């Protein structure tokens, strides 16, 4: 198949970059001419050497926080894409810093539409909301750090009215329930705090290049005011306005002209132009390796990572988790009143848990939706001279007769079903294939702790290939809503992160055990919930059971 021509899609970016480069060059030359090339040159090199690292550090943190807000907005809006692709899409949008008010970042909306089929009206609204949060945060920082005059107050009122009007327009023409979720108190507060933190770090770049000639408060005030003026000028990247405003304000703060000019040149090079370079590289990477301008073809994520999956979890962590997760299951089954039992490993992956259960003497069947994972499971189990019974299937349509299994366990699988209705259907399917009073053991990641949720949702998928960042987490308190199974109990366990070095791991196990027995246990990293299928004791139970025993067929 012929590859689409991507060149036409990059022409607007090329033109915008060339125009911005021309404006920036002219303005910079005018300032250098005014001060003297030799004077500015003598200041730039030493300043660059001393401040490059902290300035680039602040720029990086500011960009990462804006990305965190972007991906959070996508999740709230239920636009679920792998976090690594989300990052590249976001960074590609940095090219559009060269447009007035960053409005060219609507490129991201078109990438989401072309790649994932997202509705353009919704993705455009997301980009506009991003800009609103930026303006709100910069305006807040300016007001917080300035003595506001009557004229400045009028200026602020105009901006606020504009912001409110834009929000009302978005709510008028985008009626998605997801949009309404964005205006709930929690998303509003989270987006505001992230935006505030991002622009505070961005202001820190001015503090870095000013070399302690400004206080942090002065740096935030000067940076926010010059950024607002640059945005209102509608000049690409605020060139000629933002920089010149900074120079004048630095002069008023007591910096000699040549130092002020040098500071702003270094600042803009390590913020605006560094961001544009990152954006160009990301856009090229996305177009070259992921085909931004082609619709995504479906590939099972776990098929894709089958060959690398085993390497993602350190052996000592995997061995301990294997024991911690299966021991309570085995203990429960050994104490049951059933002589022989057949079980289902739902989402068996590479077969680690299945192999252990077979070794314990249980008759088992393994199911997974990824061929590559089952192939790896078959190889490892046969090496142990066990007889695996494996099947490729989806959790929503299990190829088994009703009342077939004495027990089912599902270990870190349910959150990969990225829709609440589908998760409910999976619970119903499990209830259908279980015998009356059969056991269902659900092992899941516990994201009750907001810091752990942040780690699992936004950091772990970037450093590990197991998760994509689009998971639908199940909180323990939500399991009481499962209608087809009776929730009996929930156990909380493990606190040590998967990156804990083996050398110190054994010394921390005692502390972990104490946490598991304390009131803090609800914030553990994992939990196991035990369900039972209701017995047929009443007409109501029988009616429910009959509805579950009917095989589900796709609509």
Protein model, in words:
It contains 19 helices and seven strands. With 555 residues, it is of the alpha/beta class. The protein has two domains: 7-114 and 199-290, no CATH class; 304-549, 3-Layer(aba) Sandwich (Rossmann fold). The chain has a seven-stranded mixed sheet with strand order 3-2-1-4-5-7-6. α1 (7-35) runs antiparallel to α11 (257-290). The longest helix is centred in the N-terminal third of the chain and has 40 residues, at 37-76. It is elongated, with a radius of gyration of 29 Å.
SSE layout:
Blueprint: H1 7-35, H2 37-76, H3 83-92, H4 107-116, H5 120-145, H6 150-173, H7 177-182, H8 185-209, H9 216-232, H10 242-252, H11 257-290, H12 301-304, H13 315-334, E1 342-346, H14 352-359, E2 363-368, H15 371-383, E3 390-392, E4 405-411, H16 420-433, E5 434-445, H17 450-463, E6 486-493, H18 502-517, E7 526-532, H19 539-549
Helix pairs in contact: 1-11, 2-8, 2-11, 3-11, 4-5, 5-6, 5-8, 5-9, 8-9, 8-11, 9-10, 10-11
Structure in a nutshell:
This protein is of the alpha/beta class and 555 residues long. The protein has two domains: 200 residues, no CATH class; 246 residues, Rossmann fold, CATH 3.40.50. It is built from 19 helices and seven strands.
């Amino acid at each position: 198949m012929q590859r689409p021509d991507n060149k036409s899609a990059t022409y607007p970016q090329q033109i915008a970059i060339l125009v911005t480069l021309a404006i920036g060059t002219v303005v910079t030359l005018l300032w250098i001419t005014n001060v003297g090339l030799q004077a500015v040159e003598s200041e730039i090199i030493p300043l660059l050497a001393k401040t490059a690292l902290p300035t680039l550090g602040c720029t990086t943190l500011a960009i990462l926080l804006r990305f965190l807000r972007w991906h959070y907005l996508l999740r709230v809006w239920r636009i679920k894409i792998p976090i690594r692709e989300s990052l590249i899409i976001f960074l590609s949008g940095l090219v559009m810093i060269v447009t007035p008010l960053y409005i060219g970042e609507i490129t991201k909306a078109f990438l989401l539409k072309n790649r994932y089929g997202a509705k353009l009206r919704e993705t455009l609204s997301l980009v506009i909301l991003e800009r609103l949060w930026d303006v709100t945060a910069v305006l807040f920082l300016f007001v917080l750090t300035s003595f506001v005059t009557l004229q400045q107050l009028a200026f602020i009122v105009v901006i606020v009215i504009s912001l409110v009007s834009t929000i009302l327009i978005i709510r008028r023409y985008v009626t998605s329930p997801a949009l309404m979720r964005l205006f709930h108190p929690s998303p509003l507060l989270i987006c505001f705090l992230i935006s505030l933190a991002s622009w505070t770090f961005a202001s820190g770049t001015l503090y870095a290049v000013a070399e302690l000639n400004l206080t942090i408060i002065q740096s935030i005030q000067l940076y926010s005011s010059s950024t607002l003026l640059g945005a209102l000028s509608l000049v690409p990247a605020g060139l000629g306005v933002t920089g010149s405003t900074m120079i004048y304000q630095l002069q008023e703060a007591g910096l000699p002209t040549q130092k002020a000019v040098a500071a702003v040149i270094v600042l803009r090079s390590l913020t605006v132009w560094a961001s544009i370079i990152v954006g160009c590289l990301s856009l090229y990477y996305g177009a070259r390796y992921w085909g931004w301008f082609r619709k995504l073809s479906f590939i099972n994520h776990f098929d894709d990572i089958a060959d690398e999956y085993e390497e993602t979890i350190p052996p000592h962590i995997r061995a301990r988790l294997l024991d911690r997760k299966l021991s309570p299951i085995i203990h429960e089954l050994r104490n049951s009143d059933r002589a022989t039992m057949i079980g289902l490993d739902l989402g068996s992956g590479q077969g680690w848990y299945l192999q252990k259960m077979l070794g314990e003497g249980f008759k088992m069947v393994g199911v997974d939706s990824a061929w590559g994972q089952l192939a790896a499971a078959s190889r490892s189990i046969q090496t142990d001279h066990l007889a695996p019974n494996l099947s490729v299937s989806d959790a929503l349509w299990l190829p088994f007769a009703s009342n077939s299994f004495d027990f089912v366990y599902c270990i870190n699988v349910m959150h990969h079903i990225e829709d609440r209705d589908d998760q409910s259907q999976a619970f119903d399917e499990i209830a259908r294939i279980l015998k009356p009073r059969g056991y269902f053991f659900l092992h899941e990641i516990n994201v009750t702790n907001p810091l752990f949720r942040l780690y699992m949702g936004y950091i772990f998928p970037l450093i590990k290939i197991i998760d994509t960042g689009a998971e639908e987490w199940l909180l323990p308190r939500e399991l009481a809503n499962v209608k087809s199974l009776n929730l009996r109990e929930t156990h909380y366990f493990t606190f040590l992160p998967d990156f804990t070095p083996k050398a110190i791991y054994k010394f921390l196990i005692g502390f972990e055990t104490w946490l598991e027995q304390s009131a803090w246990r609800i914030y553990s990293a994992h939990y196991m919930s035990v369900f039972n299928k209701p017995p047929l004791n009443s007409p109501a139970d029988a009616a429910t059971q009959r509805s579950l025993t009917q095989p589900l067929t796709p609509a």
